[in-house]
């Protein structure tokens, strides 16, 4: 059962985002990117108060994803990417991105905090960061 509203176009947009941001970290990395995106649609807090659709999340500016901000959001959604996107839309969560609203790829180790958000862990090249329960209870 979907945890956010969606249509076919939005599934493909999410799949493209997951591919653009996470393909280098394999399928699990892509799923974690999907978790962050879906969490942003669900929470209605912090930088995401007005993000209520997958399309708005994908193209959020400022504060959105590098893929759409810096021009590497051009690859089509393959069937396997679409299947991964559907998993995250249906609420599957993958640690350390389960409750995360942010991730980034540092040159070195992950900082303990990033913009006052706690590091929840690293998967391959990306560090993931969670809001506090007080700031964003719907992330949990």
Brief rundown of the structure:
The protein is globular and about 35 Å long. It has five helices and four strands. It has helices spanning 8-22, 26-43, 54-58, 66-69, 79-89, and strands at 102-104, 113-114, 117-123, 126-130.
Explain what you see.
This protein is of the alpha+beta class and 140 residues long. The chain is built from five helices and four strands. 38% of the residues lie in helices and 12% in strands. Helix 1 (8-22) packs across helix 2, helix 1 (8-22) packs across helix 5 and helix 2 crosses helix 5 (79-89). The longest helix has 18 residues, at 26-43. The protein is globular, with a radius of gyration of 14 Å.
Intertermini distance: 18 Å
Strand order, largest beta sheet = 1-4-3-2
Q: Structural class of the helix and strand makeup?
A: alpha+beta
Strand content: 5-15%
User: Could you give the order of the helices and strands?
Assistant: HHHHHEEEE
Shape: globular
Helix proportion: 25-40%
Determine the mean pLDDT: 96
Number of continuous helical runs: 5
Major β-sheet annotation: 4 strands, antiparallel
Low-confidence stretches: none
Over all CA atoms, what is the radius of gyration? 14 Å
**Number of DSSP E strands:** 4
Helix and strand arrangement:
Elements: H1 8-22, H2 26-43, H3 54-58, H4 66-69, H5 79-89, E1 102-104, E2 113-114, E3 117-123, E4 126-130
Helix pairs in contact: 1-2, 1-5, 2-5
Key features of this structure:
four-stranded antiparallel beta sheet, 5 helices, 4 strands, alpha+beta, 140 residues
């Amino acid at each position: 059962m979907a945890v956010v509203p969606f249509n076919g176009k939005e599934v493909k947009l999410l799949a493209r985002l997951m591919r653009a941001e996470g393909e280098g970290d394999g399928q699990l990395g892509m799923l974690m990117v999907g978790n962050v995106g879906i969490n942003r649609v669900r929470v209605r807090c912090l930088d995401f108060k007005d993000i209520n659709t997958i399309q708005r999340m994908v193209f959020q500016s400022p504060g959105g994803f590098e893929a759409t901000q810096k021009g590497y959001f051009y690859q089509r959604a393959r069937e396997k990417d679409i299947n991964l996107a559907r998993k995250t839309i249906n609420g599957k969560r993958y640690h350390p991105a389960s409750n995360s609203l942010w991730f980034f790829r540092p040159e070195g180790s992950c900082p303990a905090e990033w913009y006052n958000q706690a590091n929840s862990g690293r998967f391959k090249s990306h560090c993931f960061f969670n809001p506090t329960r007080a700031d964003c209870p719907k992330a949990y």
